[in-house]
Amino acid sequence: MTIRTISIDFDGVLHQYTSPWLNAKTIYDPPVPGAIDFLRELITSFKWDVCIFSTRNTEPAGVKAMQKWLVENGLEEAWVTRIRFPLEKPLAWIGLDDRIITFEGFFPKEAELWNFKPWNKRDAGIAPQEHDAVSAQSDAARDQEEHRQGSTEAKQA
Q1: What percent of the chain has pLDDT over 90?
Q2: Which of 10, 93, 95, 110 has the fewest beta carbons closer than 10 A?
Q3: Do the Cβ atoms of 7 and 46 come closer than 8 Å?
Q4: In the chain, what are the domain boundaries?
Q5: 48 near 6, Cβ under 8 Å?
Q6: Could you read off the pLDDT of 58-72 as tens digits, one per residue?
Q7: CATH number of 4-96, picked from 3.40.30.10, 3.90.1640.10, 2.130.10.10, 3.40.50.1000
Q8: CA angle, 91 then 92 then 95, to 5°
Q9: What does the pLDDT look like over 92-146, one tens digit per residue?
């Protein structure tokens, strides 16, 4: 059987992360709905090497806090012991992170990078696909306006 590695971010993916950051060992918020069941499903399938890759991993107290938080929020301790907490980005088949843009063969404009918002910071009621569509429409309108202005300037020259 093939076992694949999945790298999962903690804050904003498993942990709601609505409270401000205090330190690596302080975790205030509840899980994102479905997070614990998702982890349990991956671990109990025995098809995944589950890695939680977080800035919290750089401190032993941060790893212990995440492990404790997982148990306190319903993940069995036996399953928590099967999760790795690497210090470096693991060689993963796939990653799950709230602060990543999926590369689709083209590079984003710098403004898109500056304006990026993770799923839990976007306007309420706008799903990621809708948010992407709205962004794409805005980009297309901006590009058309830039092209129109360039054409007008060229005619005036």
Answers
A1: 73
A2: 110
A3: no
A4: 4-96, 110-156
A5: yes
A6: 999 999 999 999 999
A7: 3.40.50.1000
A8: 135
A9: 999 999 999 999 999 999 999 999 999 988 887 555 544 444 444 444 444 455 5
Q: What integer pLDDT is reported at residue 6 of this predicted model?
A: 98
**H helix intervals, 46-127:** 60-72, 77-80, 110-115
Neighbours of 98 (CB within 10 A): 17
**What Cα–Cα distance (Å) separates residue 49 from each residue in 8, 15, 64, 95?**
11, 20, 19, 12
CA dihedral 127, 131, 133, 138 (to 10 degrees): 160
Distance, CA of 155 to CA of 114 (rounded, Å): 33
